[in-house]
Design goal:
This protein is mainly alpha-helical. It is built from 6 helices and 5 strands, in the order βααβαββαβαα.
Length: 128
């Protein structure tokens, strides 16, 4: 079972692998075939991320705090809690219901917006 934090439950639905190594991309796609346990903070994807240093995201200044806020928002919108177990079908359905609100509240300042913008415009999760 893969452990994922809040914003990954949404953002991984639109993940295309751009900007990451082939090994990282492969691990993410493998994780998407498993059940998911919702966690608070670092998850199985973070552990593989090239921007993780000393258990914090160093993608850019302030990114760790920003990510924690996104996690809280994602859990609230998806109506899930730490410790919940979900499969990707359930996650996809929840994302489809809240993606417009997620875009409104979180995507405008996201550095990865152009990577997933097309799939989000369709209001659907590209991962089954």
């Amino acid at each position: 079972m893969v452990k994922l934090r809040g914003h990954h439950l949404i953002c991984l639905c639109f993940f295309k692998g751009e900007g990451y190594s082939e090994n990282f991309i492969k691990k993410i796609y493998e994780a998407l075939s498993e059940d998911v346990e919702v966690v608070d903070g670092l998850d199985d994807i973070c552990i593989e991320c090239p921007y993780l240093l000393n258990d914090k995201c160093h993608y850019k200044e302030g990114s760790d705090e920003e990510i924690r806020k996104l996690d809280e928002l994602a859990l609230y919108l998806l109506e899930v809690n730490k410790g919940n177990i979900l499969n990707w079908g359930e996650i996809r359905k929840r994302v489809e219901k809240i993606i417009a609100k997620w875009r409104e509240l979180s995507c405008s300042n996201c550095d990865w917006l152009t990577v997933c913008e097309h799939a989000q415009r369709k209001n659907h999760c590209i991962r089954a």
